Amino acid sequence: MTLFKVLRFACITALAVNLAAEELTGEAIMQTMDDTRRSTNDSSFTRLKLSSCTFGVNKGRIACAERPRVKVLESVSINHGKDNKDTKSLSITLEPPAERGIGMLTYGYDEAGRNNQTWLYLSALGRVKRIAGGDSDEETEPASIFGSEFTTEDTDTGKLAEYSFKRLEDTTQSGRKVWKVESLPNVERAKKSRYSRTVHYIDQERYVVLRSEMYDKYGK
Amino acid sequence: MASRVELVNDNWLARSVTMMNLVSNRLSNMAFVEIYTDLDINDAFLTQRTLTDNAYRETGLEALRAQTQ
Known about the structure:
By secondary structure, chain A is of the alpha+beta class. Chain A has helices spanning 3-23, 26-41, 152-155, 187-192; strands spanning 44-58, 61-64, 69-80, 86-95, 103-108, 117-122, 127-131, 163-167, 171-173, 176-185, 197-203, 209-215. Chain A is 21% helix and 41% strand. Chain A starts with a helix and ends in a 5-residue tail after the last strand. In chain B, a hairpin with a 2-residue loop joins β1 and β2.
């Protein structure tokens, strides 16, 4: 192949990639991001550290204003169901010792309208408690994950049909080119969600959410 | 906010995610210290029995830990 042909091929390829990126809808971006996140969790075993604290701003930097509460967890996940899009995940507390054995089991479903199921086991009480999943007669908020600021809603995958997506302007985040996508829950999802609007900043090359801004029902 | 984006199982993953609640002024950070994928996980392990049966849970977790060695 001559140098001219190589250059022409490279230009056409670059143009095609650029056009494809231009034409991507907010929904298509979110679908690929969701698929990426789900496949990372499949048949996985994870050890994670969950730290929480009250924060403040000191000399322009955000920092904990108190000693953080730290929990160490082990988590197991598999995908199953139609197209392998449903998930089962189990997380168990290892530390602190006083909380060892506290566990959370979640069955997540991709299908819109089908509520996820979550059970919490409190080892000190020896009881399993089902966390309400937002049925029509029990409109409840998602459960906190082990007392942190994360909720089951933040780690969910699927149910994209319960949202409308709008691609906003492209921008940068942490030095990376990102798509900015606004997500609005439909009426049914809004009853079960903490958020009335979310704006995601998604890495254009790696399909990873680098930042999300979530707004409550009062727009805060 | 996500950081430490790394390739895991041919997919990019943020190994550190921070949630800042501007209403309560509290934050939480979730750091993925170790991640192992493509393991052999029995479907029966992801049931309520694993929550309540300590011996069953520990046996299952030990088997998973052994797979990561």
